[in-house]
Amino acid sequence: MSTSQMNRSNLRRIWPIFLFGLLVLSVSLACRVPFQSTPVQVVVTAIAPAPVIENIQAPLPAIVISEEEALKALYAQVNPSVVNITVYLKEDNQVLPASQGSGFVYDPDGHIVTNAHVVHGAEQIDVTFSDGTIRAAEIVGEDLHSDLAVIRVEEMPAGTNPLPLGNMQDLAVGQSVVAIGNPFGLEGTLTRGIISALGRTIPALTTFSIPQSIQTDAAINPGNSGGPLLNLRGEVIGVNAQIETGGGSNSNSGVGFAIPVSIVQKVAPSLIQNGGFDWPWLGVRGRSLDLALVKAMDLPVEKGAYLWLVVEGGPAEKSGLVGASRTVEYDSRPVDVGGDVVTAIDGQTVESFDDLLIYVSLNGVPGQEVTLKIWRDGEYQDVKVVLEKRPEQP
C-alpha cells in the first residue's frame, strides 16, 4: 500500500471521530456546560443524558380568572367614578326635579363629563356619587354639535378618581364592553355587551351629525345618557347617548350608540378651558357613491363622497365647489347628478361621505386650508377650501 493510500485510510478512520468531537463541543456550548479536556474515545456505545441546568426558575403559572370575577373587579374599580345627575327646572316659580342622567369623573378638579342633552337648560344640578354623597354642580361648558357637556362640583368624596380614556385605534367590532349608569334612576347599574359596529353617524342636537360613533348591544336606557361605555380595562371608549327603540317604546331594543372617545378627547378640554368648542365647517351636504350615481354620471371611481348640496355662502361655495344641478332617470329611478365627487382630502383617500366628515371634524380647525381632490366634467381637479367656524344652524 502506498503512503498516500495509507494517509487516506487513516483519514477515513479519524474523520468520524473529529466530527463527533465537534458535536460534543457544540452541544456543550449551547447548554453552557464547561467543556472537559478528556481525550475522545474512539468507540462510543451510548450518549449520556444532557446535564441538568442549575439555577433556572420555572415560569410562573398564568393567572386565569373567570369573566364573572373580571366584571366584579371592573365594577369595583369604576363605579365610584360614575355619578347620577339630577336636573332641576323652574316651573311656576318653583325649582322642581325634571330628569336624570349619568356622568363620569374626568379629572381631579371635579370636572364631570356628561351629555349636553342631560343638562341643557338646567336651573340647578345635583350630583350623587356611589357612596350617597350629594354635591351641587354647575355647567362649565356644553357643545350641542357633539352632545357633550362638562359640569363641575367643588369637592368630591375621598377616593373618587378620574376614569382613564381609551384609544379609538384599539377598538374592534366584537370587542366586549360594559356600560355603567343610572337607567330609569336605578343608580350604579352595569350592563355588558359587545361593540356591534364602528363608524356610525348619529344626529346631534343641531342639524349636524356626530361621526365615528360606536354602536353597542349593551343595554342602554333612559338615565344611561352621559355615562361611560368602557372596555374591560376600565377605560372610557365612549359616552352613552342614544338608543334605537324601533318606535314602540323608550326602552332599549338592542341597538345603542355612544359618542366616541376621539371626540371626547377633542371637545372636553376646550369645554373646560373656553366653555365651548369651535367645530370646523366645510359647508356641504352629501352622501357616499352608489351604483346608480356611478352609472348615471359615468364615473371612473366607485367610492367617494358625492356633494349633493353646497350651502350658499359657505366655505365650499366660496371655493367654487358645486352640488347636484339636475335630475336624470337611471334604471327607472330619479338620480340627482352634476355634483362634485371628492376622492381625497389633503392626500387622504375618501371612500365615503363619512370619511370626508370625519377628516374635517377631527383634523380641521376654523381658518385652516384643506385641499380636495374632486372629479368634475371628466377630469380630476384640486380645489383649496378655507374651513370656517360651524354655525349653530346653517
Name the CATH superfamily classification of the largest domain.
PDZ domain
Identify the CATH class of the largest domain. Mainly Beta
Strand order of the largest sheet: 1-2-3-6-5-4
| Average pLDDT for all residues | 86
The number of distinct β-strands equals 22
Query: Helical amount among residues, as a percent range?
Result: 10-25%
**Low-confidence spans:** 1-56
- What is the succession of H and E elements? HHEEEHEEEEEEEEEHEEHEHEEEEHEEE
List the SSEs and their pairings:
Elements: H1 3-30, H2 67-78, E1 82-91, E2 94-105, E3 111-115, H3 116-119, E4 124-128, E5 134-143, E6 148-153, E7 176-181, E8 189-203, E9 209-216, E10 228-230, E11 236-244, E12 255-260, H4 261-274, E13 280-281, E14 284-288, H5 291-296, E15 305-310, H6 315-318, E16 326-330, E17 333-337, E18 341-345, E19 348-349, H7 353-363, E20 369-376, E21 379-386, E22 388-389
Antiparallel strand pairs: 1-2, 1-4, 2-3, 3-6, 4-5, 5-6, 7-8, 7-10, 8-9, 9-12, 10-11, 11-12, 13-22, 14-15, 15-18, 16-17, 18-19, 18-20, 20-21
